[in-house]
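ok so for the tutorial part 2 we go from a plain amino acid sequence to predicted C-alpha cells. step 1 is just haveing the sequence, like this:
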Amino acid sequence: MADHEHIIIESGDKDQPFNYAIGMHGSKFFKELKERRVFLGIRCPKCKKVYVHPRRVCGECFVEMNDFVEVGPKGRIGTFTILRYAFIDPETGEQKPVPYGYGFIKLDGADTLFQHYISIDDESKVRIGARVEPVFSEEKKGTLKDILYFRIID
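step 2 — the prediction. this is what the C-alpha cells look like for a chain of 154 residues:
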C-alpha cells in the first residue's frame, strides 16, 4: 500500500447511515498499526507536542505537521470509567457485555490521550496512572479492532 492510499473504515455487516474517510495521517496510523503493531504520533515542529492519533495541523500552534514518531506501545491511564450498563455497540451491532473498562491512555512519548478499552479482570488495579500495554487481536484489520484492550501491568 503506497503512503498516498487511504484506508476506508467499514462497519462489518451492520448498516450505518454514513461513511467517512480517515485521511492521509489516519491511514498511515492504521497501516503501521496493522503491519507492524506500532503506534504513530505526529510532532508539532513549533511546540513539539506529540499527537495520537496523528492529525495534519497542531491544535495549539495551527501549523502543519509532518514529523511522524513512534509512541508507546505502553502508557498510563489518564482517566477511565467502568461501565455496568449494557448497550448496543455501534461498531458490531451486538450488545456489549458488562462490566467493561474504557479509558484514555497516555502512550509513552505522546502528549495527548488515546481512547480504548481497558481490561478490568482485577478492578482494584484500575486507577489513574496505572501502567498498561495493548493486547492485540490475532486478526489484523487496520482498524482500532486490532487492539482488543489495554491490560494493566503494574
